[in-house]
Each structure stands twice: as C-alpha cells, then as structure tokens.
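To: structure desk
From: M.T.
Subject: fold request, one chain
Message: Could you run this one when you get a chance? Sequence is below, nothing fancy, just the single chain.
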Amino acid sequence: MLRFKFIDKIPPSLRNKYILTILIFLLWIFLLDSNNLITRFKDMRELRTLKSEKEYYTKKIEIDKNKLRELKTDNQNLEKFAREQYHMKKADEDLYIVLTPKEDRQIKRRTN
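Reply: Done. Structure tokens follow.
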C-alpha cells in the first residue's frame, strides 16, 4: 500500500523508464564521471590560458634572441648594453641615473 502511494506522488513523466534512464545518464555525464563537463570546461579554460602564455613567451624569446644577436655582432651595441643595463662608465666620465617614478617605486619595493 505504501509503495503505491509513493509511486503515485512521482510525476508521470518521471515514471517512464526511458526518461528516467536519460536523466540518470545526464546526471552521470554532468556530475559523477571523472571526465564530467564541469571539469572539461575548467580544463579548456586552463588550456586557453596556457596557450596565451606560450604565445607571450615565444614572442619574448624571439625578442631576446634578436637582442643577443645584436650584442654578439657589434661591439658598439655591446658597449651600449653594458652602459645601460649595468651602469658601466669610462674612466673620465660621470654617470647620472635618471629614473621614472615607476622605476623608482620598483627599486624601493625591492630594497624594502
């Protein structure tokens, strides 16, 4: 008697075995499976992020290769690089370093 009352409370569309099977399948696909759709969307988002990072680093490597090629081919470029990056100077020169406010803040953060 209780069993029939319980079954009567279930909507008729859910009593259909095909619809019930489809609902269980969808539940399995969306939530329970190790390759569910939620995980799949997260993985796709991460893949897009990694591809954009790869593109950024590929461009950065190309820029650095060009700089390295310039430094290896010309002594004037090597001297210019050493003066700008490492603040090297000749014996009879004075060196003045002019920083933008942004560079000044970055240096202060590193020292603190």
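Reply (cont.): The helical segments are 2-9, 12-15, 17-32, 37-73, 75-86, 101-111. Let me know if you need anything else for the meeting.
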